[in-house]
């Protein structure tokens, strides 16, 4: 089955949205989310994170979650794998794409995983060995978090981001993602850094992972598209708030992103009405969680038809 | 006094934010807002609307409000004047810039003011006569509301918007503003319509009045800047929600807009910290009103210095 799409939207709510939530979501609720995402036309979903269950009990059901997600073709099932051990577990579960994250900020990296970025590159090489030994040719994305700045370090040098992106590609990453982890980036920063990294690694930089902490998320998407980015992570209801910015929204909101792209004539393959219904169901699964996003409150414009169905070409 | 600015931000909260509010704001609170806006570096403020006081008692103190605003140089004091009578009152009060609005949607125009757009063009010609008779050469902005679509009519034809923009300029408008009154526009729509109208009236199209109803407000600003727009209306805390979309935010939020522009190295002349303090004061003046915006919750990034002060040129 082939679905034409101009921009890929990767739903990361089940991973990024749940990793900071105090109350675990039931396995059945996760399966419902996955089924609804597939039915709405989501083509890739980050289903979980292969982290120690002792520290993150919300990911104790990874195997059951991944097994259900794999039944929902043609959706690609990815997972966050912070190290070689997590990658081995993810591959054993049948995950089709691995995401590894390395913080471009030295202080953030040390605070978060007690390793320097260079030591994390070593961990990434071990992860690639695990992927290669598996033999199925599973895709690996190398993500650079805090690429646009860091609450601990302030500015993160462009040269460091470029060097680490090259390091990830050299170690075997299939594609690279830049993350604005704490919502510091402006559209000008997006253009500047995407161009700089693309000068080093070209089209291997495919993805942006943006947070909407300061309201610039969708403006940053526009800048990213202009700079050649074709894949965006997003989270239903903007789940996934940064714990350092209480009350601030987290990831860019999947339904608002899809509304913007489809309104521009950029096809995502996603049915917005089905996505809004799914959001309402997920809200019921997460009582007390703060959901963000404008479209769910304002609803679709009356008489709204995606412009591509009206024959308006993207601009 | 000259203030260098790349983009003009016009604060419209005192007009657009208050016109739908049930409880009137006191004159002292309005003066405090005006003083705070001037102190923060706001260079133009829409201070009120010259509408019948019987229908809009919140504008009963226009004269006192305008008198206070005029004392706050170098801030330009503008007002909404929906007809020639309002323009005469505004000029008598000393207003320095008049804004007139005409709805590009025939059904919206009939529902709102019981006149067709063409009849409204006639009203605008009478307003221009009043301005010309006044002799002080006060600037008049012709605004086209529902330019990007309408809840009653759905799509509004590009040809209608172009024709009405030409009509306003032909009648004597100094500059033209396009309004996305109900938050239907995408960045692609902004580019398309700004280019189309500029083909007809060139640089007379200076301004966008955007609502953030569906979360695309700041993304639309990026598209507008790329298409040559240099003036944006905005409202502190995103006040000014459309009554047809309960709970949806209204105008784009001044402080989020200024944060985006300054982060991009585009100077606005506005001090963001002073603006955030002002927002907190205005919130106290309007208990129960729903304030929007991400920056006020997440606060400025640590170590944040506007990039232009760090010597980064706009991109």
Write the SSE topology.
The structure is a homodimer of 315-residue chains.
Chain A: E1 8-11, H1 13-17, H2 27-40, E2 44-49, H3 62-70, E3 76-80, H4 84-93, E4 97-103, H5 106-113, H6 117-134, E5 139-145, H7 158-171, E6 175-180, H8 187-201, E7 205-210, H9 217-226, E8 231-234, H10 254-263, H11 272-285, H12 295-298
Parallel strand pairs in A: 1-2, 1-8, 2-3, 3-4, 4-5, 5-6, 6-7, 7-8
Helix pairs in contact in A: 2-3, 2-11, 4-6, 6-7, 7-8, 8-9
Give the largest interface: A-B, 47 and 47 residues
**Number of continuous helical runs of chain A:** 12
In whole angstroms, how far apart are the ends of chain A? Answer: 27 Å
What kind of sheet is the major sheet of chain A? 8 strands, parallel, barrel
CATH topology of chain A: TIM Barrel
Number of strands of chain A: 8
- The radius of gyration of chain A is 18 Å
Beta-strand percent range of chain A: 5-15%
**How does the overall form of chain A come out from the CA principal axes?**
globular
The helix/strand order of chain A is EHHEHEHEHHEHEHEHEHHH
Calculate the mean pLDDT score of chain A and round it: 93
- Secondary structural class of chain A: alpha/beta
Please identify which CATH superfamily of chain A we are dealing with: Aldolase class I
- Placed side by side, the strands forming the largest sheet of chain A appear as 1-2-3-4-5-6-7-8
Give the CATH architecture of chain A. Alpha-Beta Barrel
| Total domain count of chain A | 1
Classify the oligomer. Answer: homodimer
Low-pLDDT stretches of chain A are none
CATH domain class of chain A: Alpha Beta
């Amino acid at each position: 089955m082939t679905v034409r799409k101009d921009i890929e939207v990767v739903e990361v709510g089940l991973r990024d949205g749940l990793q900071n939530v105090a109350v675990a979501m039931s396995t059945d609720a996760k399966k419902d989310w996955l089924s609804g995402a597939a039915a709405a036309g989501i083509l890739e979903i980050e289903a979980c994170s292969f982290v120690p269950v002792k520290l993150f009990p919300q990911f104790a059901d990874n195997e059951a979650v991944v097994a259900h997600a794999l039944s929902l073709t043609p959706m690609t099932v990815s997972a966050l794998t912070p190290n070689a051990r997590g990658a081995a577990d993810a591959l054993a579960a049948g995950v089709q794409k691995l995401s590894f994250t390395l913080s471009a900020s030295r202080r953030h990296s040390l605070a978060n995983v007690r390793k320097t970025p260079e030591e994390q590159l070593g961990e990434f090489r071990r992860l690639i060995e695990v992927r290669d030994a598996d033999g199925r040719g599973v895709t690996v994305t190398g993500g650079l978090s805090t690429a646009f700045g860091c609450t601990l370090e302030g500015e993160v040098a462009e040269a460091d981001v470029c060097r680490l992106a090259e390091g990830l590609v050299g170690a075997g990453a299939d594609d690279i993602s830049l993350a604005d982890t704490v919502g510091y980036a402006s559209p000008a920063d997006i253009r500047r850094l995407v161009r700089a990294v693309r000068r080093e690694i070209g089209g291997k930089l495919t993805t942006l992972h943006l947070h909407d902490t300061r309201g610039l998320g969708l403006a940053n998407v526009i800048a990213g598209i202009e700079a050649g980015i074709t894949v965006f992570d997003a989270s239903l209801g903007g789940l996934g708030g940064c714990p350092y910015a209480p009350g601030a929204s987290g990831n860019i909101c999947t339904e608002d992103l899809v509304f913007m792209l489809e309104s521009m004539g950029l096809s995502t393959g996603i049915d917005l009405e089905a996505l809004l219904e799914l959001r309402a169901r997920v809200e019921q699964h997460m009582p007390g969680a703060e959901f963000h996003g404008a479209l769910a409150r304002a609803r679709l414009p009356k008489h709204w038809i995606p412009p591509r169905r009206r024959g308006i070409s993207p601009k």
